[in-house]
Amino acid sequence: MEATILVAVISASAGIIISALTFFLTKWKEREAEWRKQKLESYKELISALSGIVDPAPSSAAKTRFAHIANHMLLVATPEVLVALRDFLDEASESNKNKTVDRHDELLTVLMYAIREDLGIKPNKAAPDFQFRLRAAGKAEPEL
Question: What is the number of domains present in the chain?
């Protein structure tokens, strides 16, 4: 009789443990999905704000919006993204008198790949000579 009771207790315990484990794993996956969704929205905002300051003379509101979202990245971005963002901002800064379009695009590409890596977007790398470029509103497409 004791063996029967022991088997029943083990079976009940295993059922409870499996149910609890399933619950916690499901909650963990839901939290991860919600966090990834939040990051994606934040990164979309960053790119949108970045697009607003591409013009040769961006408005004060566009600059303020970009500064706000760039600072927001401190809460959601990985250290790799933050380093890439800092390097990009240093290059794009109005105080940088030695900035070049090639260096700008190179650092933008590093930033975009860091964001893609953080979001788990695959494939993360394109051809070695590929670079991301920003387009200003109202600019004509370059001739090919």
Answer: 1
